[in-house]
Amino acid sequence: MNVMKRNLGLGAMLSILVLTGxxxxxxxxxxxxxxxxxxxxxxxxxxxxxxAATDLPVISALNPRPQYRIGVNDVLTVVVWGRPDLGSTVPxxxxxxxxxxxxxxxxxIQLPFIGTVTVAGLSLKGAAVAIENAYQDxxxxxxxxxxxxxxxxxxxxxxxxxxxxxxxxxxxxxxTVGEALAAAEGPRTDGDLTRVLLTRDGQVHELDLWxxxxxxxxxxxxxxxxxxxxxxxxxxxxxxxxxxxxxxxGPYPIPSKGTTLVEGLARAGGxxxxxxxxxxxxxxxxxxxxxxxxxxxxxxxxxQGDIPLxxxxxxxxxxxxxxxxxxxxxxxxxxxxxxxxxxxxxxxINEP
Length: 352
Prior knowledge:
Elements: H1 2-19, E1 31-33, H2 35-44, E2 75-80, E3 90-93, E4 96-102, E5 108-111, E6 115-118, H3 124-135, E7 144-150, E8 155-160, E9 166-169, H4 177-183, E10 196-200, E11 203-207, H5 209-213, E12 229-232, E13 239-244, E14 250-253, H6 261-267, E15 276-287, E16 290-296, H7 298-303, E17 314-319, H8 321-331, H9 333-350
Parallel strand pairs: 1-16, 8-12, 13-17
Antiparallel strand pairs: 2-4, 2-7, 3-4, 5-6, 8-9, 10-11, 10-12, 13-14, 15-16, 15-17
């Protein structure tokens, strides 16, 4: 019986040692570094590949809204007052008396009696003047009215977390980032407006439309160009995670102004003072295909907590050894007590 009790006692101690993490801690083979290393790594990190949007032209008092320029595939209606036989001749459809002219690949339209007129690159007023000049030899003082029926010349792709992703076309009423998003019926609730990407001529510009909506920048008024691409990423791509012994573990979005290590812990309600380890806090950070584990104390987190967090960062707060022992006592020892009781009952029943 003494041997049995001794074996049970050793088993309980072994369980406590295993569950409380005695011995070396293994973080999956990743390099473990300190908080000072994190400071140095961030200073040495390459700058983001996204370019600043401050050099992109915006609509303002000094840069008023430009006139739309006709382009290839635009569908126009050309009317010459008093001469229904001139101007556009192709019916828009069987139910519409309006005639149209489509700008061909050379930037031209075809009109009766004068043939080819180049209109691509001209404003509506400029194209009307060009047509009037072409008709001068046929009728005196021609008056031309020109209207774009369908804007098809200058596509902009709006993709990602928007209500209606797809291609929109620049027009007199659609020239800016904000107007393109409105044409896509606005962003979805899971879209991250703090990191909208505008791709132009192979260069990516990062826009903070959340700040623009609140009057902090003019990103919504950036003038778009033919071939631009707008992408709103999901908010999950811009999250950090707080795990372990904190009041409210889980994912948290990084706001437009950014957030720091100590703010991240505060967002999760702080560490549990009664059970968390003050000496074993970890930050897991992925950089490309590699990852690094930074180990620090609660005191270091508070005193050096102005370290900016990055998307995908994972903060882990370990339990203290005392809390782990308490867990063992609550969950393991009752099972050992049952085993011991069964053994004692068995001994009593089988005693001669």
